[in-house]
């Protein structure tokens, strides 16, 4: 049989990615002191690499301490963190998978209690939290007011992303993804609903995307030319007066001109909205971004079944699928998918340690 689209390797720049079933970035709230990844991250990400995901992407990894969502988030702003990430990328590589890191600044949604804490919402400074920042002093509903970033501080944020990308390369990552979705700092700048600035970082489309384009340029300048760069966006805010899919397609065209290789298209998270959640509910956004811009896209959001994922991956408008919650339940989802799509034991993405006990025996 011919190889299913989901298991067809692809090459972006000089990086070969063995298949198109990719682990979505997912916060684990399990960092050690000061954003250092732990054995949890090695086991969590390592299990999914052994489980056959072609690209294993870390959770949102903060570029500065104040850019963490919660105090339990991981980071990549110092050398201790680089040293702790290295065995994780080495293990991912040993499984034949590719290692990606999602670089993030949580903006006005930073400094909150991690899920599972007895309390939720913003952590006050007296409890170990910090003052959040954003393009404008407009709070996310229910969270503390952010402080407006000065132009000088915007420059520091841009530099922090570049420094984090340099450290990511040193830590052995193959792909860098900038987190510009879900209501975190870069997304706060993109949206007219959270960015009310009147200077050159606000106002019209060109002003609102400016910080992201500067981050892309600064990261591309230090990130090796043979390694891919992705950007995750919220393709729509699901509100007529917010960021729309047309804006996403326009942004994708510009980002590609600045060296971005793939747009990972999610949605929502910057403001409250009714989201029509259902199987594959964001896939059409990825399709539309590619159709208009021609830029490669990844689709994410309730893609859970092998047949469903195969149809999406076979569509010319989507390059790869990201799997989130299903991958938490099923670390070796790609192995099951390979069998359900008719691949033989030898073709399926098994580590050699597991070949004796493959699915059919
Ligand atoms: C997420 N998601 C997410 N997204 C992101 O860009 N960075 C992140 O760090 C996280 N963290 C995170 C943690 C957990 C526990 C979940 C469940 C989700 C969103 C995730 O990447 C994905 O876009 C959504 O979960 C939708 O895909 P699924 O889960 O329906 O496949």
UniProtKB/TrEMBL annotation:
Gene3D superfamilies: Aldolase class I. Keywords: Flavoprotein, FMN, NADP, Oxidoreductase. Its cofactor is FMN. Residues 6-341 form the NADH:flavin oxidoreductase/NADH oxidase N-terminal domain. InterPro entries: Aldolase_TIM, OxRdtase_FMN_N, YqjM-like. This is NADH:flavin oxidoreductase/NADH oxidase. The lineage of its organism: Bacteria, Bacillati, Actinomycetota, Actinomycetes, Mycobacteriales.
């Amino acid at each position: 049989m011919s190889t299913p689209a989901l298991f067809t390797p692809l090459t972006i720049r000089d990086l070969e990615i063995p298949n198109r079933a990719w682990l979505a970035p997912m916060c684990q709230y399990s960092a050690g002191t000061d954003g250092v990844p732990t054995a949890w991250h090695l086991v969590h990400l390592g299990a999914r690499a052994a489980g056959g995901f072609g690209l294993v992407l870390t959770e949102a990894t903060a570029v500065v301490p104040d850019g963490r969502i919660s105090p339990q988030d991981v980071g990549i702003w110092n050398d201790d963190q680089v040293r702790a990430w290295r065995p994780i990328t080495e293990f991912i590589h040993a499984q034949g998978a590719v290692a990606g890191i999602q670089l993030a600044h949580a903006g006005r949604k930073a400094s909150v209690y991690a899920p599972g804490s007895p309390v939720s919402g913003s952590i006050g400074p007296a409890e170990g939290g910090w003052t959040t920042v954003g393009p404008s002093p407009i709070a996310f509903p229910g969270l503390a007011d952010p402080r407006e970033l000065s132009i000088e501080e915007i420059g520091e944020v841009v530099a922090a992303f570049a420094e984090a990308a340099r450290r990511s390369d040193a830590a052995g990552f193959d792909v860098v993804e900038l987190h510009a979705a879900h209501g975190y700092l870069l997304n706060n700048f993109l949206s007219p609903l959270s960015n009310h600035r009147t200077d050159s970082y606000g106002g019209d489309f060109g002003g609102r995307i400016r910080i992201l384009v500067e981050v892309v340029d600064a990261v591309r300048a230090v990130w090796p030319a043979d390694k891919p760069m992705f950007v995750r966006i919220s393709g729509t805010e699901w509100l007529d007066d917010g960021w729309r899919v047309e804006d996403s397609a326009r942004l994708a065209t510009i980002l590609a001109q600045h060296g971005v290789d793939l747009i990972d298209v999610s949605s929502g998270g910057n403001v409250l909205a009714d989201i029509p959640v259902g199987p594959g509910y964001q896939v059409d956004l990825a399709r539309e971004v590619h159709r208009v811009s021609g830029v490669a896209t990844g689709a994410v959001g309730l893609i859970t079944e092998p047949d469903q994922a195969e149809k999406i991956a076979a569509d010319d408008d989507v390059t790869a699928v990201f799997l989130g919650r299903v991958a938490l339940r099923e670390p070796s989802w790609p192995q099951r998918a390979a069998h359900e799509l008719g691949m033989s034991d030898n073709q399926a993405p098994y580590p050699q340690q597991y070949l004796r006990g493959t699915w059919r025996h």
